[in-house]
Amino acid sequence: MKMDLIKFYELLIERFDKFVVEWFDYSLLNNNGYYFIVEIFFCICIFFYLILGVIFITRKNNKLNKYININNIFINLFIFNILIILLLLLNSIKNNFMLFNGFYIQNNFIFYFKLLLLLFSLVFLFILKFYLKFNNLDFEFLIFIFISIFAMLLILSSNNFLSLYLSLELQNLCLYILVSFKQNSHFSTESGLKYFIIGSVSSGLLLFGISIIYGFTGLLNFNDIYLYLYYLNKSDYLLIYYILILSFIFILISFLIKISLSPFHMWSIDVYYGANYYITFFLMIIPKLINIFILIKLLYFIFINFYLIWIYLLYICIFVSFLIGTFGALYQIKIKKILIYSMISNTGFFFIPFLIPNIESLVILIFYILTYFFINIGLFICIFALKNKNSNIIVRNSFNLINLFNINPILAFFFLILLFSISGLPPLLGFYSKLFLFLFCLKNKLYFITLFAILVSVINFFYYIRLIKLIFFEKNKYWFFFDNLNVTLSLILSFIIIFNLIFFIFPNPILLFIFKVSLYFYL
Q: pLDDT band for position 1 (50/70/90)?
C-alpha cells in the first residue's frame, strides 16, 4: 500500500513538474516574449526617442550658434527602425496563437495586414524625409506618428473589446495632435478641435455599445461574443437579443464615423482640408486601412448573426456616399477637396462587399481597398512633387496644374495614368477593381446598386477628365516652377505606374495571393 502511494506521489510530482515546465515555455517571460517581439521592440524605440529628443532639443551648435535640428536624424532612424520591424515581422511566428488570456491574437490574416501597414508607413516616412521641412522644435511630430503606427499594430492584434478600445484611443490621441500641430494656422487648430469632438463622440458611442454587451453577457473576448450570439436562443431571450442589437448599432455607427461613410462624413471634409497636406495623406490611407480591418472583423465574424440588421443601414449609407462624394466634387477647385470627395465616393464602393459577407466578397473588398490606396499613394506623390520652387508651397488650386505638360511632361503623364486608373478606365488597375465589384454584384442579384454604381463612376470620370484637360490642353502665361522629384520617390512612383499598366497582363498571381490572404481569415 505504501509503495503504491509512493508511486502515486512520484507520478503526481512528475506531472506537476511537466505542467510547470510547459507553463513556463508558454509564458511571457520565455517563448511568448518572442511572439510579442515586434511590439516590444517598438516600445523600446519609442522610449529611446523620447529620451533622445529631450536630451538634444536644447543643445546648440557653438560654431553656428544654432540649435541642433534633430528631426532629420529622427526620420532616418524611424525609416531604419521600420525596416528592422519589417524583418522581425517576416521572421516572426505566423501561426495562430493568443496571448494575455485572449487579449492579443496573431494569425496569417493579421500578419499580412501588419505587413501592409508597415509598408505604407515606410512610404509615408520617405515622403516626409524628402518634402517636409522641420523646425528644430518639431521632433514630437515624428514621435506621434511613430506612436500612432505602434497603436495600429496593437489594434490589428486586438481580440478583446477592452484592448481594441485602449489601442484605438492611443491612436486617436496621436491623430488629434497631428491634425492640429500647425499652431500658426487657424485652419489646423479648427480641424484639430473638430476632429477631437467628433472622435470623442465616436469613442463614446463605441464605449457605450461595449458596456451594454459586457453588462448583459459579461463577455469582451471576440470569440466568446461570437459563440454567445451564435447559440443565443431568441425565443427565450428576446429582450437580451434586441438589447445586443442596439449595442451592435452603437458600435457600427462609431466605426462608420471613423471611416467617414456618409451621412457620418461631415467632419472629414473640414478636418482633412484643414490639416497639413502630409497628415491628410496619412489619414486618408493608413488609419482608414485599420478601420476597414476592424469592420471586417466585426461584420464578417463577431456580429455575422446580425446580418439582416446592418444590410439596410449600409444600403442607405452607400447611396448617400455615392451622391455626396460624386456631386460634391463637381464644383471643387481645390485639389485636396477633390481628393476628399473622391475618398467619400470610394468609401461607398468599399462597403458594397459587406452586403454579402462571404469569402468571395472579402477577396473583392481587399483587392479594391489595396487598389484604391495604391493609386492614391501615387497621386499624393505627384501632388507633393508640385511644390513651388520659390514659395516652397504645394499647389492648392486645380488651375495651378495648367502648363504642367510643358513644364514636366513625365509627371503630367504619370498624373494621366493615375487619374484614368482611379476613374476606372480599361485596361488600368482601377478598372479591374470596379469590374470585379460589379460582376460580384450582378452574381448576387444586386442589380439596382450595380446600375447606380456604374452611373456614379461615369459622373466621377468627369472631374478627373477636367484635371487632365487643365494639365494637357489649357494654356496660361504664368508658369509655376516646381522642385525636382526625389530619386527614391521617383522609383516608388514609377513602380506604381508600371504596375497600373501591366496588371492586365499578369493578374493571376496578385489575385491568387489576395484569395490566399482572405482564406486565412476563415482558418
A: very low
CB–CB of 357/419 below 8 Å? no
* 3-state SS class at 482: strand
User: Which residues lie closer than 8 Å to 20 by C-beta, 6 or more apart?
Assistant: none
Grid coordinates given for 520: 486565412
Q: Which amino acid is at 443?
A: K
| Residue type present at position 349 | F
Rounded average pLDDT over 121-148: 80
**DSSP readout, 66-80?**
EE---HHHHHHHHHH
- Give CA angle at 513 (105, 423), nearest 5°: 105
Give the Cα separation of 436 and 185 in Å (integer): 43
In this prediction the pTM is 0.89
* C-alpha count within 13 angstroms, C-beta hemisphere, residue 98: 10
pLDDT score for 368: 93
Q: What is the DSSP string of 64-133?
A: TTEE---HHHHHHHHHHHHHHHHHHHHTS--S-EEETTTTEEE-HHHHHHHHHHHHHHHHHHHHHHHHPP
Q: What would the pLDDT profile of 166-192 be if each residue is shown by its tens digit?
A: 999 999 999 998 888 877 777 788 888
User: Reduced to 3 states, what is the DSSP secondary structure of residue 141?
Assistant: helix
Q: Which three cell numbers stand for residue 472?
A: 494637357
Percent of the chain with pLDDT over 70: 86
